[in-house]
């Protein structure tokens, strides 16, 4: 009886190992980070205003479809889809937030810029909704669309200082994923330039 139980155990282990070897392997995923695109606005140097003050950029609210890290595309009508086998290095909201923080640091004379995770006792707070971060097809031409509804607040008392809706579109120079990613970089750079200049003029 003991020998039979032992043989049954060995058979079970061999079967499980064999079963694991025939399971389908996961499809490879290519991960992209958002490229930094140089524009004519970048050559103008730092933006004056609010020197010595600090800013916290909160992760924007967005919908679940955009926030899972895949590169979103709307090929037609209201049909939502994603590019297969590729994704951002983080969720769309975090990718957008981190690039905005980068651009504030690069373009402004603010004393400190961080996210809500830094627990910065900031003079200013920037919140918003990321309404679009996707590719849409317009007349069979892929176009990157980014929409951000921004609210600038006093970090000490929470009062709203200003609000504005920002939107940028950038045609994709082709249909391949690397060309899509480059278009995202150009669109975000232009949008963020507008956000930085707007915020620092309050």
Structure description:
With 202 residues, this protein is an alpha/beta fold. It has one domain (2-200): Rossmann fold, CATH 3.40.50. The chain contains three helices and eight strands; from the N terminus they run αββββαββββα. It has helices at 2-22, 92-107, 177-200; strands at 30-32, 54-57, 70-76, 79-88, 112-115, 124-138, 141-154, 160-171. Strands 1, 2, 3, 4, 5, 6, 7 and 8 form an eight-stranded mixed sheet that branches. Strand 7 and strand 8 form a beta hairpin. Helix 2 crosses helix 3. The longest helix has 24 residues, at 177-200. The protein is elongated. The N and C termini lie far apart (84 Å). Residues 5-21 have low confidence and may be disordered.
Helical amount among residues, as a percent range? 25-40%
Segments where pLDDT lies below 50 for 5+ residues?
5-21
Number of helices: 3
- Helix/strand order: HEEEEHEEEEH
Number of strands: 8
**What is the residue-averaged pLDDT?**
86
Principal-axis shape: elongated
C-alpha Rg (nearest Å): 23 Å
Q: What's the CATH H-level homologous superfamily?
A: ABC-type transport auxiliary lipoprotein component
How far apart the termini lie comes to 84 Å
- Beta percentage is 25-35%
Quaternary form: single chain
Secondary structure class reads alpha/beta
Count of the domains: 1
User: Could you say what the CATH topology is called?
Assistant: Rossmann fold
Largest sheet: 8 strands, mixed
Q: According to CATH, what is the class?
A: Alpha Beta
């Amino acid at each position: 009886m003991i020998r039979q139980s032992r043989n049954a155990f060995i058979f079970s282990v061999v079967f499980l190992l064999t079963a694991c070897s025939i399971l389908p392997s996961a499809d490879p995923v290519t991960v992209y980070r958002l490229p930094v695109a140089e524009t004519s606005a970048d050559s103008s140097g730092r933006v004056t205003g609010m020197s010595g003050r600090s800013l916290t950029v909160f992760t924007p609210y967005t919908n679940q479809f955009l926030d899972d890290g895949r590169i979103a595309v709307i090929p037609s009508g209201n049909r939502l889809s994603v590019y297969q086998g590729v994704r951002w290095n983080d969720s769309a909201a975090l990718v957008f937030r981190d690039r905005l923080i980068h651009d504030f640091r690069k373009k402004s004379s603010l004393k400190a810029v961080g996210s809500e995770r830094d627990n910065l006792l900031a003079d200013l707070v920037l919140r918003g909704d990321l309404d679009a971060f996707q590719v849409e097809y317009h007349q069979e031409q892929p176009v990157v669309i980014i929409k951000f509804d921004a609210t600038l607040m006093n970090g000490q008392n929470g009062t709203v200082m200003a609000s504005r809706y920002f939107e940028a579109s950038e045609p994709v120079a082709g249909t391949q994923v690397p060309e899509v990613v480059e278009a995202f970089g150009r669109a975000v750079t232009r949008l963020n330039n507008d956000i930085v200049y707007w915020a620092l003029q309050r």
